[in-house]
């Protein structure tokens, strides 16, 4: 009898242990599988990174999305707004409809129009389902911060907001509606480039009303290059000389993932885009963007590609070129970019046949020489290489000489640069640690 009781107790204990194990396994499975709400928040977080929201809505040293970043415009400075879920200073009191009106229509909750420094003409293409996910993330996945918003530094009457409503009606497109999902790579890439990625906000030239001259590939001006913050955001179309004509889809993916490839390295605002946004995107989405960009025809179709010319390399090696530009290059640039102009792949960018070097507008090259540049840090390429600025070392004329030399060497065929071009760029530097135009460089004093 005792044996039978012990046997029953043993069986019951085993059953209890098995039930507890099953309960624990089920709990672990449920914990591992996020709820529908959590999935929506996670989706929104990904979309916020794809849209690079943190870059504009975070001031230097500030909390993420708490706003306060100064954004220069032709009429003055505006400051990005607090988009954390703080109810007083942020968007905590926004309904999903309020959020949608701000994001895609450019209208604040109080009915005032937003400055188009907020790229709502691009975000107009964001689908309602993605707006819903973004709203869930900003309300549930972002920490509220009570940082107050700053007023604009724009003099009256330009500071009046009512003309912005007219601007919206003239230049802002109709917002997208939900429709059949088409995730084919080309369509997906177009959606990301033209919409959330808002690539045109920097890479498309602007008209007299400061509107993007094109919002889609209906015009060859779309993504043909635009000046922003003193840099030229490069032509992203199929031009072989100053665009992506010589880049493969894999080259574009590598650049967006790591901030560098065999053709170039990210600098200026694009370094921030890679660091904050594109490095976190999936391979599928990056490949889709690359496929779409490679589908864009050249602005100047029929222009032949440039070919490498070794004459400059040999002249520098022999010392037969004693021109001011050549000497400035040897003294300041050759150690990293080499006398061949080819640099060191994915370390120090090539200057030979570079789209940045051969751009019609030399703004980026001048700015990099003056201010220097630093590659972004990424998970796939954690080593950061930097170039020092030469604003305090070289005069305007010396910078013009070396930039002109670079733009006409190793097969490059770009126009010359003069000292006045450099002087204009120098005035835009955040810190005026420079020498006066025409004075001797520090190295010779």
UniProtKB/TrEMBL annotation:
Molecular function per GO: electron transfer activity; heme binding; iron ion binding; oxidoreductase activity, acting on CH-OH group of donors
Pfam families recorded: Cytochrom_C
InterPro entries linked to this entry: Cyt_c-like_dom, Cyt_c-like_dom_sf, Cyt_C_IC, Cytochrome_c-type_DH, Membr-bd_ADH_cyt_c
UniProt cofactor note: Binds 3 heme c groups covalently per subunit.
Residues involved in heme c 3 binding: 333, 336-337
Subcellular location(s) per record: Cell membrane
Stretch forming the signal peptide: 1-27
Annotated segments matching region Disordered: 425-445
Protein name per UniProt: Alcohol dehydrogenase
Originating organism: Herbaspirillum aquaticum
